[in-house]
Amino acid sequence: MTLAELERLIAGGESEQLEFKRSTGQLRSGCDTLCAFLNGQGGTVLFGVKDDGRIVGQQCSDASRRELAEALRRIEPAAQATIEEVALPPHPEHRVIAVRVPPGQGLRPFFHDGRAYQRITSSTGRMPQPVLEGLLLERGHPIQRWETQKAAGITAADLDQEEILRTLRVGVQAGRLPEAALADQAGALERLQLLRDGELTLAAQVLFGAGKAVLPQCQLRLARFRGTDKREFLDQRQLNGHAFLLLEEAILFCQRHLSTSARIPRDRLEREEQLAIPLPALREALVNALCHRDYSQQGAAISLAIFDNRLELWNEGGLPFGLEPEALKGEHASRPRNLLIADVFYRRGLIERWGRGTQVIVEECQRAGCPEPNYSLKGGCFVVTFPVGAESEPESRPESEPESRPESDLARGVLQVLQNGPLGKAEIANALGHRSISASLNRTIRQLLADETIAFTLPEKPNSRLQKYQLRSTPPGRGGS
């Protein structure tokens, strides 16, 4: 972490994932907070920063480093902490110590000196007994979970190495993996908690399996039907592969077969285009299906069906831990069936906050002016139904019917994800659910730049590694006054 990065982090103030401590003289309460972060969304404690955000630093001796290491050992189960020291010029002996921990999914609850803590907004407190008992119950039989079982006859050589490396890169960029992860690629599977007694788990197969390592239940069925029933196919596909491949293929299928609409927002002069279902909502629904499905059912699959009036996403296995469909549009407990798989999706930046996925889907539909989806249980399956069609788009007019124009669809997808702010190429690819920066994506971005639909954030440095892309705020040919 550089001094500039530290200052940007501090500028946001203390939060659910950030705590300031004057010095390691407050080490005990700092470790209470680290324990709370492990029981929540992860976070960082900065030693050498006052409560008001002023950077004061402290002298870091070998004795203080040993004291910090000893304090961290009093957190149980053993915590995976990243420690960085940021020198403060002109006195480099004065430093800020940044201690970061990831979410402790799969190992919660964590205890510090025998007590469990939780984080609420910017405050750390003792975890209430009912919450503690619930976490202990869920942790009680982790070895019996399907995803933690050992993968028979599969080695690391049978996994998609490029996808593993991509996960590390995106995780580091998102701040959800330490930079050391890229220097220790051999230890990546252990860092991602995908080994048990030194052997691969079934979670590793689901996330990265290739070739013979692809499980039969890692299957995606895609269909486009004519009309509103299943009597006539317009297109159908059946795919087997790891979770990230299935996510990308599902997104591409939706972009090919969903219509697009054009409208002029009240606060803008430019027309904007969007899929009949907002891409962020679609991606969130697919990620939820991949994270939470019951993989123990061999022969089961995720099914995505597009009709003239709706899109249905079927996930075999129902809802975990007794959740009910009607509870999913409001605040509800985070109870992922597959903790390890969900954790890797989190590190990959595809899950923003635990337990919020179904609410995010609703919010994205509302933001786009589309009808809310319906959540239901049918025949042991959890079903998400998105209404589509003219009656579901009151503010839009049809711009194009479903057709196979991948790069045109890709351009619309790029413009849609950039509505939330500037992104780099890798971030755009990830937001679209793609595994990598494809040749098609490169061509699309070049064309959008040539059309002056998007612009560089660093126009004077077009080849900078920090380069990002943004929507043009002024239509081409119109000067400011």
Short description:
The protein has helices at 3-11, 27-38, 62-72, 129-139, 161-173, 180-183, 188-191, 202-208, 243-257, 279-292, 339-347, 357-367, 406-417, 425-431, 439-450; strands at residues 18-21, 43-47, 58-59, 75-76, 82-88, 91-101, 111-112, 117-120, 123-126, 195-196, 199-200, 219-225, 233-240, 260-263, 272-275, 302-306, 310-316, 374-378, 381-387, 397-400, 454-456, 469-471. The protein has 481 residues and is an alpha+beta fold.
Polypeptide structure, described:
The protein folds into 4 domains: about 5-140, Schlafen, AAA domain (Methyltransferase, Cobalt-precorrin-4 Transmethylase, Domain 2); about 150-215, no CATH class; about 220-395, Heat Shock Protein 90 (2-Layer Sandwich), CATH 3.30.565; about 405-470, Winged helix-like DNA-binding domain superfamily/Winged helix DNA-binding domain (Arc Repressor Mutant, subunit A). The relative contact order is 0.09. Helix 13 (about 405-415) packs across helix 15. The protein has a 6-stranded mixed beta sheet, covered by helices on one side. The protein contains 15 helices and 22 strands. It has helices at about 5-10, 25-40, 60-70, 130-140, 160-175, 180-185, 190, 200-210, 245-255, 280-290, 340-345, 355-365, 405-415, 425-430, 440-450; strands at about 20, 45, 60, 75, 80-90, 90-100, 110, 115-120, 125, 195, 200, 220-225, 235-240, 260-265, 270-275, 300-305, 310-315, 375-380, 380-385, 395-400, 455, 470. Strand 14 and strand 15 (about 270-275) form a beta hairpin. The protein is globular and about 75 Å long. The two termini are about 40 Å apart. With about 475 residues, the protein is of the alpha+beta class. Helix content is about 30%, strand content about 20%.
